[in-house]
Amino acid sequence: MKKTGIEFDSQKRRKEEPLTNEELLTFFILQFFTPKSIWRNDHFSESEMDRFKKHGFNRKIKQAKTVRVLGIIFWFLVFFIVIF
User: Fold this and answer.
1) How many Å apart are CA 18 and CA 21, to the nearest integer?
2) Is residue 51 one of the residues assigned to a domain?
3) Residue 74 lies in a domain
4) Range of 49's domain?
5) CB-count exposure of residue 68 (10 Å: 0-12, 13-18, 19+)
6) Does a structural domain hold residue 47?
7) Cβ distance 18 to 60 under 8 Å?
8) How far is the C-alpha of 6 from the C-alpha of 4, rounded, in Å?
9) Is residue 71 in some structural domain?
10) Burial group, residue 75, by CB count within 10 angstroms (0-12, 13-18, 19+)
């Protein structure tokens, strides 16, 4: 099936969109608060990364990795401040 110009433009636009605020919070704050249960073999942030890779959202992948690292640093600092 051949894609029309509108469908192609829409796909291209979606690939270039940045992360939404909800997605940013998911990767920044919630990465440690969404437990991986024994009976489930998925994790929300991991499944989102897989979805980004599947659909070729390279900009979102790059942003998600950066936000995830910043989230780890943030929670480490919070833990360090609470301890001392």
Assistant:
1) 9
2) yes
3) yes
4) 21-28+42-84
5) middle
6) yes
7) yes
8) 5
9) yes
10) middle
45: Cβ–Cβ under 8 A, 6 or more apart, which residues?
26, 27, 30, 31, 34, 64, 68
Between 58-83 and 21-28, two packed helices, what is the crossing angle to 10 degrees? 50
Q: In total, how many domains does the chain have?
A: 1
Side-chain-side CA neighbours of residue 73 (13 Å)? 6
Give the 3-state secondary structure of residue 37.
Answer: coil
How many residues would you count in the chain?
A: 84
Structure token pair of residue 75: 């929670």
User: Which residue has tokens 């480490």?
Assistant: 76
Tens of pLDDT along the chain (84 residues)?
555 666 667 777 877 888 888 888 888 887 666 555 555 555 667 778 888 888 888 898 899 899 989 998 998 999 999 998
